[in-house]
Amino acid sequence: MAVTSTTSADNTDVDRGTKEYEVIDIEQQAVAEAHLRNTTVQNITWRGVTVTVKDRETKLSKAILENVEGIVEAGEICALMGPSGCGKTTLLNVLASRPTGAQNVDAAVLVNGSKPSREAFRQMSRFVEQDDALIGSLTVRETLHFASRLASTSSLPKQERTARIDGLLDSFGLRDQANALIGTPIRKGISGGQKRRVGVASQLITSPKILFLDEPTSGLDSAASWEVINYLKGVAKRNKLIVIASIHQPSTSTFSLFDKLLLLSAGKSHYFGPVAGVQSHYESLGYELPLHVNPAEFLLEMVNTDFAAAHRRRESQQRLDQLQMGWASSQQAKDVSSSISGAAAGPSSTLTDLEVAEKKPSPPSLVLTLLHRSFVKSYRDVVVYGIRLAMYTGLAIMMGTVWLRLSSSQESIIPLTNAIFYGSAFMSFMAVAYIPAFIEDHATFLKEKHNGLYSATELMLSNFLIGLPYLFLISLVFSAISYWLSNFNPTAEAFFTWVFWIFLDLLAAEGLVVFVCSLFPSFAVVSLALVAFANGLWMSVDGFMVQPGVLNVFWRYGFHYWDYQKYVFENMMVNEFSGRVYTCAAAEGTGTGGKNGCWCMWQTDLADQCLIRGQGVLDQYGYKDGYMGKDVGIMMGIILGYRIAGWIVLKLKN
């Protein structure tokens, strides 16, 4: 039977009504969670945390956090609580050394009384987002497996890695869901509460000593919220971890699970200390907790002035100020300051033990892991390449049947030219279908980058490499259908040259998608509009709509020469026409070029034979054979340029 609840600190089961529980073997659990054991981090302290931003209306500086302090010891779980806009998420980001977007951040955050290096802090801590980015096409076990591989060297024995994963599955009550998919928009997966537990477990598998969580119970019902916090509490107690979570209006049972509470309002501390002591503190200020009332709701109502009636706004603000002053002058606040000073004055630790605790994977190993994960996602999630393959197959059938079995006579020359443009342009245009898949990858990357697992370099390399076989397959399928149906140059060499240019076309188009989505990852509609606009621009200046010799100077030198569709269209035209000969039409009346009873739309040296040399068609565009090597080099540069541009964007963004 699967374990659906972790044990409490003394390893006793908790009965939650209709659910069944099974006691986890203590020795087995100790072995499975050995990698989580914290023996280096004793406490985390923060003092004088002040964050200011510039008010958009007044243009003046405004404090969203003011002189906040606190201390959390190993094995404790602390809640940051307060009304919306009180600064709890900003404080969590400050403590986790994450960007806040604020004008000025002044804070002294110490671990074991000393300030760790950025790299050491990243190694010892993890952050779980409010909307944790999980890859929906992976199973629960695979999610933990890949998280472990990204955080620990490949030399970790397979048996030990499996034991770690099994231990967390048991601790978080996920054994029954181990082989269930997380869930995609098309395929339903695990529940919201289970996803939240997977998100936490995927961070714990990386062996952090400090865990930060941004509203881990948001969007969950009271039972699921209790389960998530209860699991966290059990793991933290057993392994001496430090857990700090922002939380919004928990139920009574969930609230009582926390060891410590930091209550914020308007950026100032109103209470910090044991959850059990908050009632006595407010009773000492003359505010007794009513019977049969959720303590968390009572506290939030006490420190929230947002919904006070207009005529009572001033009175509410005065009460809030009195409550804050009451805390600042209390003996408990002085004791907190003394504890922080004592931790800072104690024997400081450089935390060098963490540096050698477990070697991080090498960049090649990270790329291979990301490739493996992307491969699993690519064949399970139809949004990644399945839909695109179906789209391109449909396009090939439509194109092949519209331009069906074109002859080698002159009346087919213009349709063949149109087909070449249509095939190359719309192949790249439909790369917009890749936007949702990359935005999901980007969200996962941001989470894992902030947690120090890998960088933009590994993401770009793995993303480029995983696309190569799929894009080549798409190019081959599209060409195999449309090329022979339309009756393009019927030689094997010409066919594979066509496939090669379609492949380069798709590589460039996907590079464009990656670059634009890196710029605007939070706005799929913006990315979609920009990619569509860019492809429309490339179609306009690639040489088909307006011949290169006619195109005006601005568009020709400003855009035409770095338009990847230009090189695709040009070389596909050369592939079709440079080695072919077309028959002229029978003469009727006094048609131009009429000789020997025929007339030719393009005058070439074969006109007296009632034939048109294909080069004559190319001459009107200014195209010649012999430049394929140079053009391939330019295309490689464009493809690489888009990827480098996307890499730079990801590197520069916080």
TrEMBL record:
Keyword DNA damage: no
Segment forming the signal sequence: none
UniProt organism field: Rhypophila decipiens
Entry similarity comment: Belongs to the ABC transporter superfamily. ABCG family. Eye pigment precursor importer (TC 3.A.1.204) subfamily.
Membrane topology category: Multi-pass membrane protein
Record-level GO cellular component terms: membrane
One family name in Pfam for this protein: ABC_tran
Major place of residence: membrane
Compartment(s): Membrane
Keywords of this entry: ATP-binding, Hydrolase, Membrane, Nucleotide-binding, Transmembrane, Transmembrane helix, Transport
Protein name: P-loop containing nucleoside triphosphate hydrolase protein
Transmembrane stretches, start-end: 382-404, 419-439, 460-483, 495-516, 523-541, 632-650
Gene Ontology terms for molecular function: ABC-type transporter activity; ATP binding; ATP hydrolysis activity
